[in-house]
Amino acid sequence: MLSNSGLSSVMPFINTLGGLAIFLIGLDYMSTYLKRSAGETLKLILEKATANKFIGVLVGTLVTVLIQSSSATTSILVSFVHSQLLSFERSIAVLMGANIGTTITGQIVAFKVSKWCYLLIFAGFLYQTIATKTKNKNIGGIVLGLGLLFLGLKTMSSAMSVFRESQYFMDLIQSLENVGWGIFIGAVFTALIQSSSATIGIVIGMASQDIISIEAAMPVVLGANLGTCITAILAALKSNISGKRVAAAHIIFNLGGILVFAFWIPQFIELIKQITPDADVARLVANGQSAFNILSTIIWFPFTGLLEKLARKSVPGEELRDIEHYSLPSPKNLSQSPTLSLIQSKDSISHIKDLMREMFWYARLHLVSPKEDISDEDFIHTRSEQKRIRLETLNFLSKLAKLNLDYKQTVKVLKQSSLINELEHLAIQVEATFLENKRKIPYQDENYSKLDKFYKKTLKYFNDSCNAALKSNQANAEIAKMRINELKKSEDLLRSDLINRIHKNEEIYHPEDEELTLKILDLLKSINSSSLRICDSVSEQFKDVKPMKL
Predict the structure, then answer these.
(1) Quick one: which of 29, 11, 14, 54 has its CA closest to 197?
(2) In which band, very low, low, confident or very high, does the pLDDT at 462 lie, cut at 50, 70 and 90?
(3) Do 20 and 58 contact (CB within 8 A), yes or no?
(4) pTM of the predicted protein model
(5) CATH fold for the domain made of 330-541
(6) C-alpha span between 135 and 54 (Å, rounded)
């Protein structure tokens, strides 16, 4: 057992580790509730990320400020690029913005408000407990997380004040002024705890106790930017080539910035001191981190094309953009951002829809088209892919439904599941029609040409209906619904013509041709009926439906 003197010498280390744990818990808690609170905003701003590079940087900054984690932002980017929701080229600008957004944590920590940590914890806990609305509970969680963050910082700062008496420890800290060594320590430590914000928090905590100088702190800050890339690397391990290139771009961006600044850190520190002459070391560290990331982005911004090329060379190979290679990414923690998870599942349903269109088109080539033909293997392979993604998406939604979702999120999960089931109902029908009929309708007059046109329009309106549902666009759903209803007239004419031919008993038509034509018309009728139901489901979303109060 440890003696009292031995225990007293160990306690500062234990308290420092405990403070670090509380800091990380607070950061994670605050990040989680910020994601939940800003879910709809995240959805909107991520959709704007494709506009141009400048907007991409702003989007990356805003998203990271909202969720308080550049690691989370880069993981989301890997996931979105993997699922083709965002192109690799556009993700680079968002990555740059993420590095700027992450500096807000350091700026918050640098404020000397640790003395209010207990009040924040109590207020956040009380508000979260008594709140009845999800939005208010999220706000309480954010305040509670912020209080825990400051409590962790306060605990670490108090514990580390003892280390000033250790000459060995102070010599070790002073050795961080060696730029290479400081960057290495910052990178390794950040990679281990997977949080650059925590590293910056510790450095600011030491700075507030006059343990570390700005000259020793800045190399560690630079290293933290490199170490935070580990999260993107881990997220990219199971991703496709495009996702891996996002991680590569993140590493190259941070490494390039570090190499530029590493050679003039004394001048850089002097610049920060001149900009904020009255700031203490803690504030200088926070300002230094912000300035480094902003200047790195400014330097790289004109060379995003070069950054893209370097990332492509780092991860060679052909990008698999075909829908048949799609795989729904599995977020590490669905509960952290259900809205982002719903975006991913919606994207997956879009891929199911695209595969359905391929199946319908294969059926047309197989049954109706006069010149073209398709093998059973192509159709069967597409159907197999559609089944795989369908099961994967339903499993994803099932896990999501078990979380503590709000009412609107629950409705979206149910709507998406219903759309998947509607599509599967059609997939079964087209599969049966394709496999059970091994012959093609002979094109002997214009009536069969009319059938082909009817087929093509049916597929177009099916696609329009699904897109309206996926985008929750009521106006487009009404337009598609109107066109489908008009298309029914074509179906009636085709059926009447077929009945007349049968009645006249025209010998040039084989009975099997007429039977097959009826089967095709039945299939197209089913597609149009499903398209109408999909359009109706969009209209139902906009009805003033509220949860029942028991």
Answers:
(1) 29
(2) very high
(3) no
(4) 0.59
(5) Methane Monooxygenase Hydroxylase; Chain G, domain 1 (1.20.58)
(6) 31
